[in-house]
Amino acid sequence: MKSSVRTVCAIAFTGVTLSATQVSAQPYTFTLLGTLGGTHSDAYAINNTGVIAGSASIIGNTATHATVWHGTTSTDLGTLGGTNSYAIAINDAGIAAGESYTTGNATFHAAMWNGATVTDLGTLGGTQSFVQSINSAGVVAGYSLLAPGGAPYHATIWHGATPTDLGTLGGTNSYAMDINDAGVVAGFSDIVGGVYHATVWNGATATDLGTLGGANSHAGGINDFGVVAGSSDILGSTAFHATIWNDTTTIDLGTVGGTHSQAIAINNSGQVVGWSYTTGNVAEHATLWNGATATDLNSFLDPSVVSAGWVLIGANAINDQGWIVGPALNIHTGTHEGYLLAPVPEPETWALLLLGLGLLASRRRYS
Prior knowledge:
Elements: H1 4-13, H2 20-25, E1 28-32, E2 37-46, E3 52-58, E4 64-70, E5 73-78, E6 81-90, E7 96-102, E8 108-114, E9 117-122, E10 129-134, E11 140-145, E12 153-159, E13 162-167, E14 174-179, E15 185-190, E16 196-202, E17 205-210, E18 213-222, E19 228-234, E20 240-246, E21 249-254, E22 261-266, E23 272-277, E24 284-290, E25 293-296, H3 303-307, E26 310-312, E27 317-318, E28 324-330, E29 336-343, H4 347-366
Keywords: Signal
Protein name: Putative extracellular repeat, HAF family
Pfam family, one: PEP-CTERM
């Protein structure tokens, strides 16, 4: 990864000046994150210091391992003894969480990586558990099987290695997809009749967020203000749309032209990312929603990136600086690789940065 901050500083110190027109014409820098020696990777989360969590294939593509990227450096986090592992979430302290095959590849268990230490978080009694989020206090959210033998999944939070069952809205299954710094959890649960509704758990209280009029809804993200992002079926249609729930208000975010869209994450500025079908439902494209405006993130790619075959097929996370990560597909080779889109500073910010660097240089010369 090469962050926009590093790019800005490199340009400033080498004496290159970009005009306001050039800066505003390309509002994001695009970086492919690379792999652990194999051919594919994915980026699932990014914290507010710019550290990215995901997974990458190792040399020979014999396994996929949980990975973090610090700048341009990728680190293999290893496994719980099995072949594959995935880092799905990371907090601002750099603690990553996800899941890993256990020894013998018999089952996946929720896992947490703190530096070089990997911890098996266990289950609610079943054979499998999976992670979706971790907050600043290190509380992990996901879901776990209740008992051996294909029992239902229940939304789960882990304090350390202790799992807590969050229950359901009355149905069989539930899934926790995100947790904010207040410990409020967002996800979805089936209600009586096998229909799924977006759900918020605040302590022991589960709240049904409802839908846009259709049968089903799903929550994927929640910010520290309690605004929830996800998707909902549309009344009288087979389509589902990206949706946000703000207190008692449910808002249809629309699409970039196709019938379906899904919001996956939301930051504390209210920016939402996910994916949408393009016009004619030709393809799934990574999408950013600022308020009611849906933007295909591929529109920010340099033509050279597009001609090389890269398409942003989804956006999995956005941090409070607006940095976005997700999966990119190369339509020429069929390979997948995690990407970073980092906002380029606005012209005013750019000018202030260059002024600050100039003052710093002057201070060094005359000190």
